[in-house]
Amino acid sequence: MSYFLIYLIKSTVYLGLFYAFFLVAMRSTTFFRFNRVMLLLGTFVCMLLPCYTITVDEVEGIQLPMQILDEMLVLKTTDEQIETSAIELPLQETAPTASTPFLPIVLLGIYIIGMLAYWFMVIRSFIEVWKMIASHPKQWKDGCWLVIIPEKIPSFSWSNYIVISEEDYRNYPQVLVHERMHYLCRHSYDILFFTIVHALHWFNPMVWLIRTELKQLHEFEADQGVINQGIDAKSYQQLLVMKVVGNRLQPFTNNLNHGSLKKRILMMYQKPSNRWLMLKALCAIPVVALALNTFATP
């Protein structure tokens, strides 16, 4: 259990370093799909890196904080302690067994409660969405299920379902195109992956920030797809302004109202970034090396 807590701490640090690198190097570029893949792959790597540890001959200053934390959370019995106990205790007495540390148990209990609460909210939201889909007629159109809701709701997409209000379907064809872009780009799978990561790291603000960044990239990518379909950019931006005041739906769906409106409009006018700037992603390699060295053990 103590090792699991250390895993969470290490992966939190890795995610923080990765997100800081992304903000500095890649956030301002227009490589929406590349940045999206980078966030997904980087998060996955950050979840795996704590399972790999390098060893060093001597602990340096950068590695000292983690060594102290490791000693606080993980109860260790050294050979010297065992020899001392054997000398001091009479032969007929049983050697003392190591007691379970109190701090890891408390922290693990809080962690489990938080994770269960998160899953409860996710499952409840999923049930609400599925009830909405199941209670209305569906039609197969262009490779996905189209669900038209008579009520005035924010349109959204999930997996191969596009849920759209009757008003949007009749009056605003751009909405259907936008949600279809989410479907074609398979954004729902990204959200599903991050739902699992979020459940493990519900306490970690870095995961919340990376997930928000990812969903914003989804909107940029869908907006770009809408414009590439030949829809007038001005009328589409006016629609965004009108729709942004709508209610938000469940966090695991893609909907038209998500994201910063100002950023989305600015990205539509931004000049495409030079493709050579993608090479900045290679700078993540020394960042990973530094992080691994920070958690090196003697």
Structural key phrases:
alpha+beta, 298 residues, 7% strand, five-stranded mixed sheet
In words, what does this structure look like?
By secondary structure, this protein is of the alpha+beta class. The protein has 12 helices and 5 strands. It has helices at 2-25, 32-48, 64-73, 79-88, 102-134, 166-171, 173-184, 187-200, 205-228, 233-243, 261-269, 284-294; strands at residues 138-141, 144-149, 156-158, 161-165, 254-255. A 5-stranded mixed sheet has the order 1-2-4-3-5, sandwiched between helices. The chain starts with a helix and ends with a helix. Residues 77-89 and 91-98 have low confidence and may be disordered.
Major beta sheet summary = 5 strands, mixed
Question: How many strand segments?
Answer: 5
Amount of helix:
55-70%
Helix tally equals 12
**In percent terms, what proportion of residues is strand?**
5-15%
Output the structural class.
alpha+beta
Shape: flat
